[in-house]
Structures are given as C-alpha cells and as structure tokens.
Amino acid sequence: MRREPLLNGVLALALLAVPLAAWALDEPFVITLATKVAILALAGAGLNIALGYGGLVSLGHAAFFGIGGYAMAVLAAPVQNFDLLMSWPFEVPGTKSMPLIWLAAMSAGALAALVIGALSLRTAGVYFIMITLAFGQMLYYFAISWPAYGGEDGISIYVRNGFAGLNTLDPIQFFALAYGLLMAVLALTHMMVRARFGLALAGARQNPGRLAALGIRPFSLHLSAFVISGAITALAGALYADLNRFVSPSMLSWQTSGEIMVFVILGGVGRLFGPVAGAALFILLEHWLGGVSDYWKLFLGLILLGIVLFARGGLIGTLAGREDAHD
Amino acid sequence: MTAMLLIEQALNGLQYGVMLFLMAAGLTLVFGVMGLINLAHGSLFMVGAFACAAVAGATGSFWLGLAASLAAAAAAGAIVEMTVIRRLYARDHLDQVLATFALILVFSEGTRWAFGSFPLYLDIPAALAGPVTLPGGLEYPLYRLVLIGVGLGVAAGLFWLIGRTRLGIRIRAGEADREMIAALGVDISRLYTIVFALGAALAGLAGALVGALQSVQVGMGEPVLILAFVVIVIGGIGSIKGALVGAILVGMTDTLGRFVLPLALGTVMSRSDAGAIGAALASMLIYILMAVVLVLRPGGLYGRA
Amino acid sequence: MNVKTILMAAVAAVAMADNATAEPVKVGMITTLSGGGASLGIDTRDGFMLAVGMANNPDLEVIIEDDQRKPDVAVQLADKMIQSDKVDVLTGIVWSNLAMAVVPAATAQGKFYLSTNAAPSQLAGKGCNPNYFAVSYQNDNLHEAAGAYAATAGITKAFIMAPNYPAGKDSLAGFKRFYEGDVVGEVYTQLGQTDYAGEIAQIRASGADGVFIFLPGGMGISFVKQYADSGVGLPLIGPAFSFDQSILQAMGDAALGTLNGANWSPDLDNAANAAFVTAFAEKYDRLPSVYASYGYDTANLLLSAMAKASVADAPAFRAALKAADFASVRGKFAFGPANHPIQDLYVREVVKEGDLYTNKIVGTAMTDRGNPYEGECKM
Fold first, then answer.
1. What average pLDDT score do residues C203-213 get?
2. Whose C-alpha in A238, B82, C311, C345 is 20 to 30 A from the C-alpha of C11?
C-alpha cells in the first residue's frame, strides 16, 4: 500500500480522538470546533466530487450549502412557531426530525444542482466557474431581499433538531452524527470512484475524445456528478444550520463558495480525505490566529499563499507524495 | 419629465458601465495573455483609491493623487507579478484561485494595518465639482461626464495600443502562441510583468476615480471584482471589445433595472411592496443576464471558445 | 487556547471594596474587529474598555473576540464563551442580524446580554427576555426622531430611502410613524450599493422638498458625496448612523448642514458626558462616536450592578441592572418594562470645528421616548 491510505486512517482517527479527549477533559468548545471541521469537510467532500473527480470547477457551491441550511429552517420554523408548513392544497406540518430534514435538504440540493448543472454544463473552463458563481449570487441576493424567511437577518431555530435515540444538544452526540455522515459519504465516494461511473468520469476528465468514441456522453456523466455533489453539500448545509441553530444569506455568499473551494484545494484536489485535511487546517488557523492579532487575516493570507506556492497537491499531496495523484 | 429622467438614467448607466470597463479591461487582458484568473484585481482597485486619498490628503491636490494611484497600483501589480503571480502561470486555475484569494486577505488587512479601520476622505477636485446643464435643460454632474470621457478615452487608447503598437503585436502574439513569441526572442517574462502592471494601473485608476465618488475603505474592491468578472464573461474572456460591450450592457441593465422594475411593479401592488420586491429582482438582474448570455453563447459575446 | 484575555489590572481597588460583593464577573464581548465594518466594533470596544479601565475593578474580567461580521462566527464565539470561558454576561454585537443569531440562545441558557447597539424589533416585543437589556435604544428610535423632527425642519414632502433588508424596512416604518408630512418617494437600494446616481435622479424628479436616508457605513459616505455633487440641494435628514463620528471625516464638506436623529451627542451637556468625551479623546486621540458612547454606558451599567448584587444571584443582579443606577452620558436614562431605555431623542447637525467634522444638537425631537414594541412583550 502507498502512504495515502495510511494518512487517511490517521486523519479519520485524529478527527475522532480529539473531540473524545475534549469530552473526557470537559472542553465542550473543542468538540464544537471538531464538529465544525467535520461538517465543513462534508461540504468540501461534496464539492470534491464535482471538482476533484469530475473536473468541474464550481464557484457556486454556496448555493447548495445555503439551500440545505434554508431547507432545515423552512421545515423547523413552523414547528417552533406552532404553525403549518403548508395549509393549501393540503395541510403539511413542519418537522424537527433530522433524517427527514436531511432528506429534504438533499432533494432540494439535488434539484437545484440539476437545473444549475444542466444550464451551466453548456459552458466549460473559466466560463463554467463564472456561470456557477452567477447562479450562486442570484440565490444570495434573492435570500437577502426576499421578505419571507428573515431576509438579511436570517432565521434562528432555538432548539437543535432531533434524532431518535440521541440528545442532539449534547455536543459529543451531535459530533457523532456529523462524523458518521462524513465517514459514510467518504466511504461511498471511495466506492463510487472505483465503480464504472467513477472510471467513466475520470475518463471524461482525462480524455474526453476517447469517451465520446465509446458512445458515452460526457454531459450526462458530468450532470450526474454535479447533482450528487450538490446533494452532499446541501446535506452539509443542513447540518451546519443545526450546529449554529441559525441560517442566514451569508451561507450563500460567494465568500462561502470560495472557502469551500479553499478547503478542497488546501487538502488536495481529488484526494478522498483532502477536504478533511483542508477544513481542519483552515479552522485551526482561523482559531489560533484570531487570538494573535487584530490583523490575523493578513497572516492567514500569507500562510495560504505559502502553501499554494510551495506545497503542491495540497496537504495530502505533499505528505503522501504525488504518485497517487489523480491527474 | 419622464423622458428626461430616462435619459439621465441612461447616462448614469453609461457612466457606471465605463467605470466597470476600466476594471474589466485589465482583468481580461491578464486572462487573455497569461491565462490567469486574478481574484486580487479588486485589491489593486483598492490600492489605487487609498493611494489617491492619501496623497490628495497630504498635498491637497487630487491630480497628484491620481498620478500616485496609477504609480502605486502599477508598482503593486509589478511586485505581485514578480513575487507570486509568475509562479502560477503553469498551474491550473484552481491554484490561481487559491493564491489570489490569499492575496485578497493580505492586501485588505495590510491596507487596514497601514491606514487604520476608518474610511478615508477623498473628494472630487474643485474644478470638476457640481452639475452642468446639458442641452434640453438636464442638470448632470460634471464629474460623471468627465468619467464617461476618461473611460471612453482609455478604451480608445487600449484599442490603439493593442492594434497599432509593437507592444500590442507582442501581446496578441502572446495570446495566440506563447512558444512562438519566445522563440522570436521576445523576453516573455518582461512582457508578462508589463501587461500585469498595465492591468493593475487601469484598476488603480478606476479606484481613484470612483473613490472620489464613494467611500474609500477596506473591502471596496470585492463587489467591483465580481462585477468585473461578470463583464468579461459576458463579453468573452480576452476580448477588449467584449469587455467594453459587456461593461456598458451590465451598467445599463443594473441602473435601468433598479429604476424601472419598482415602477413597473408599482402598477400592480402597493408602493412599499413594489419597492422591496422590485429591488430584490433588480439585484439579481445582471446575474440573470450573464446566465442567459452564457446559455445562449457559451463563450460570451465576442469569445473564441 | 486562543483567549484574547484582557485581565483588568489587579491592582487593589480599595474604593469600592465595602459594598461590592466579591463575586467576579466574566464578560464576553463579541464585536466586529476586522474587515469593512471594523470601525464600529473598534469604537464599541474602546468605549467599553475606557469605562472598565477607569473603574479599575479587579472583579471584572473581559474577553474580546472578533466576529468578522459573520453570524455563524458570532454564534460559535458565543458557544465558546459560554461553554469554555464560562462567561456570565455577553455584549458588544453591532449588527442586528448577528444579534438575532446570538441573543435568544444566550438568554435561553441563563446568560445576561447587554446590547451596545443592535436592538431589533423581534427582541423588543414578542422575543423579549428578562436577561436581555438594550442599553443603546430600540432600533426604530433614531429613525422616529428624524421623522418627528422632519416637519419642524421644513420637510413636508419627503423622499425616503434605505437598503433592502429588514433593518432598512424597519427604518422607513420608524420614520413614517411620527412624520406629519407626505411621502413622495420610497426607494429600497441594494445592500452595499456604492453608486446612487439613479436614486439621485429619482429624487430630483420626485418633487420632494427633503430627503430621509438610512445608509449606514460606506453606503452613507458614497451617497452623501454624490448627493452633494449633484446639486439637488434639498435638506437631508437621517438617523445618527448615517452621519456618525466614525464616517464624518470621510464625507467632509458634503455632510455639513445635514440633520440626524440621535440619543447622544459629544456636546450633550452633562458632567458624565464631558468626562467621557475628554477621557476618550485623551486615550484614543479621536472623538468618540455614538457606538463608543453606548459601549461606555454599557460598561458603567454593568459596574453599577456589580456594586449592588452578585452575578450568581440572577434575580438580584437582574434587578440591579434594571435599576440603571449609573451616570449615563445621555443624562436621563431609565429602563422601560421590556428592558429598553426611556430617553430623550435629539436632532443633531453636522458642523466643522477647526479641522474636525462633528455633530451639534440643534433640537429635541421627542422626550421620554421608549420602546414601541413593549406592548407585545410578555415577561
């Protein structure tokens, strides 16, 4: 075996061990930070399917992240206000059940990705980056200025949603949920990459001509990857909203898209655990540097710059070597 | 009265578009020649505005400030090109996005470190202040008319530079075939530094000119950056002509949309609601425009893709 | 751990030792210290810390963190301060949307929240909480002051304008509540908009005889400069946020003569204010803004409660806060039933003193104005 699987195992264990140690030492905020890493890594894992495996550079994934967040708020808000989600043509109550919310978030994210992807995939290269950005900005301005659901203020959901058998307000139990979902998605991604779909996707990225000769249309392959990617990022958005018990349009901003992309690039594009490494490093830097100086973002910028210039292939690429690179 | 208002709004749209062109021209040039996505282009806009405000504040002369903005932005561009950007030409777009994203953080917080957190003062020069009366009785700010003139002048200058000069020939050759131009003995790395500094100077000029109308503060470049990207994508990346057409299209759509949509909705709903919903739709309008253009013409209006 | 702890010098402060209870109080301040909105957070912090430094009370510990103006960051900082630092009191948030994200959860966990600025209608009415105190105002107040005074200033046909977000809509509603003239134009602009040529053209064509704007921060700077250059020349009025000390120097002559509704001004004539303005200018080498004054009042309110009750005894501490037994820089200050101030509202005019632009009070808009939403508050 090469070094990358070993490194992945270390990362998976570390992300589990740190919050467990914090739990034992009664440091609940460290658990919250680890939960944030797990959730943002999940968002990055979603983007990685489009960006790393499909070669589709989307600068609009905040759209799916935000859609997931708003799906949570739209479903949970009626319950906290003793209201109905819909009263016409038939009565639909809201829900505080996490699995239902996850399902709704993923469906909404997949649907949005289907529409945005179908239109955007007519373009390629930089144009694709920019058209996905445009769709993200559309949703952002829509959320800010549309009066329902709080506009710029966003919506607070005061009590975290429930999951049968767990107390989700307990930081360690909520972490377990986020971590479980992250590992499940990474395992599925691993299988997908090795299945026929993943191989075809890799083929489409590396040699589109040959694939066309085999009678496979890259458009439907790419669209499928984009839809899966959008659904996973939306799931992360729903979890992130539950972590903060709050959603707002800032989840949809282009800076959020940029940050999700930074997690992936920082960790290593097209590496299974790239988003985990990237999100962990970014959150740690943000957390540590924030205490050093009012101008901490200056140092964050310099460190990011150093990594991209001198640590090619991201963290995983640097640590595990380039032999495993996907391109 | 309504016709006059419409004409005034069209002038406003034109002026806005021309300013966007100054930003977009540098961006599209850098992309066309070097294949580089530069998210930090908005930071150079900010550098220009701060340089102008600082020098104008110290000397009392807006024109010295304007010269300083060109010099500071060009210098910042050249330094960044030689230390960072140069290493990114061979990389894929992703590394460029991450590196220039990091540069935004460095520029923004570095500027805040140097100039503090409070917005700076920069005003229109006295010679250009106040409105003038146009034929037809329309009162319009002189400074904005001058901006339209400067923007169109820069556009003409760029067309001349690209089309008629030795540097322009090299730039066009660089876009078409990098190996060939290197084989012909042109110092490509110097050419790249010059092009990047030229794009930066244009952004700095825009920052100084717009800074006199706006708030000179940290982060002022980012909203303009996104709009400049919208412009060059609509126009077709690498095309100066596309950038000009795209900029005016975006400027007009945005200004007229903000004006017309609430009025149109006001005929079917209350004024408050029409204002809020009209404004919501107007803020999405240019992104809708961009998506429609790309769906119909995936390479932009004048693109080669 | 990254705790930006400012431990107040533990030099023995004998002065307050007799009646002060020895229970230490830990305060978490979440405010905006980086990015474009940093100047407001810095003023809030500096005003607050000025009062803390002057009191020199060793039982008060303040932890300060930067929310980057992001609601999700603010929520996580509040979690950290409550879970790890075990703070008793939270304060410092500048923006309403961040307050909405943090305050309900913090008060639900039994923490006190003292607002140095944002006081949205939701928290003033249905969502009020006995542990939530707005020291600044209720969000609508300063807009109401502008509206109540507009007719006096000769504005009978107003053109009104605000960004298209909840605080903007509240602002226009607040202005209209006590405005006695006609509204001839009502426009919502994009949040963060920098070019107002289109709106100025509409003002010129509207036949208005005065303009009300709520455009905080950079938006206000852009508008005021462009408006002055357009030659429209109608009187301009707004809430204090549109013409505050932190942005006046960047507006320059363009702001001269504009009016703004406020509950505080550097020239407000009382001993506490004179001491505050002098001490602030001495320590930070600039004039204080309204945000600095709210920070300063908030710290003094907290100190006054600490002198009366132990924070561990929540009902007693709450009552001590509610008594508002401190020398406010606003002179008169009392809390209404929903823990929002009852205070006089003024109208200020922007003037130039030497090289500095600042505000001077020109009239009183409303006396003993309280919280318009307190009827909806059940606590």
1. 93
2. C311
DSSP-derived secondary structure letter, B134 = P
Confidence band for A27, pLDDT divided at 50, 70 and 90: confident
Of A67, A10, A18, which is closest to residue A43 (Cα–Cα)? A67
Comparing CA positions, the residue from A150, A141, A105, A137 lying closest to residue A248 is A150
> C229-250, pLDDT tens digit by residue?
998 999 999 999 989 898 898 8
Give the three-class secondary structure for C294.
Answer: helix
Residues of chain C contacting A291 with CB distance shorter than 8 Å: 1-4
Q: Which domain holds residue B238?
A: 9-117+134-296
Torsions phi, psi for B61 (to 5 deg): -115, 120
Q: What is the pLDDT of residues A146-187, one digit of tens each?
A: 777 888 888 888 788 889 888 888 889 999 999 999 999 999
Burial of B150 (0-12, 13-18, 19+ CB in 10 A): middle
Instruction: Record the tokens describing residue C106, joined without a space.
Output: 């913090």
Count of all residues that appear for chain C in the document: 379
Residue A237 identity? G
User: Which chain C positions have a beta carbon within 8 Å of B223's beta carbon?
Assistant: 192, 194
Chain C contact set for B220 (CB, 8 A): 36, 194, 218
Of B95, B113, B229, the CB nearest to A130: B229
Q: Does B124 reside within a domain?
A: no
Determine the residue among C44, C84, C129 to mutate to test chain A binding: the one whose Cβ has the most chain A Cβ atoms within 10 Å: C84
* Helices (H), ranges, chain C: 38-55, 71-83, 96-108, 121-124, 141-150, 166-177, 197-206, 218-230, 245-251, 271-284, 290-308, 314-323
- pLDDT digits over A129-154, tens only? 888 988 999 999 889 877 778 888 88
Q: CB pairs below 8 Å between A and C: how many?
A: 91
Contact B9, C201 (CB under 8 A): yes
How many folded domains does chain A comprise? 1
With cut-offs at 50, 70 and 90, classify the pLDDT of residue C17.
very low
**Which of C196, C122, A274, A269 minimizes the C-alpha distance to B16?**
C196
pTM: 0.86
CATH code of the domain occupying C141-263+345-376: 3.40.50.2300
C-alpha torsion sign, points C238, C242, C248, C253: negative
Instruction: Give the tens place of pLDDT for each residue, B244-261.
Output: 999 999 999 999 988 888
Q: Tell me what percent of chain C is helix, strand and coil, each rounded to the nearest 5.
A: 40, 20, 35
Q: What percent of chain B has pLDDT over 90?
A: 47
Distance CA A289, CA A269 (A): 25
Asked whether residue B1 is domain-assigned, the answer is no
Amino acid at C154: G
For residue B107, give the chain A residue with the closest CA: A298
Domain assignment present for residue B267? The answer is yes
Residue B113 lies in a domain: yes
Which of B31, B98, B233 minimises the CB distance to A262? B98
Domains in chain B, number: 1
- Decide if domain C5-139+267-343 falls under CATH 3.40.50.2300: yes
Please write the tens of the pLDDT for every residue from A231-273: 999 999 999 999 998 899 999 998 899 999 999 999 999 999 9
CATH 3.40.50.2300 in chain C, residue ranges: 5-139+267-343, 141-263+345-376
The larger pLDDT score, comparing residue C219 to residue A326, is at C219
- The average confidence (pLDDT) of chain A is 89
Domain region containing A34: 3-324
Average pLDDT for residues B42-62, to the nearest whole number? 95
- C16: pLDDT confidence band, cut at 50, 70 and 90? very low
Residue B55 has pLDDT above 90, yes or no: yes
Which CATH number characterizes residue B277's domain? 1.10.3470
Whether residues A126 and B237 touch (CB distance < 8 A) is answered with yes
Which residues face C29 on adjacent strands?
Answer: C64, C91
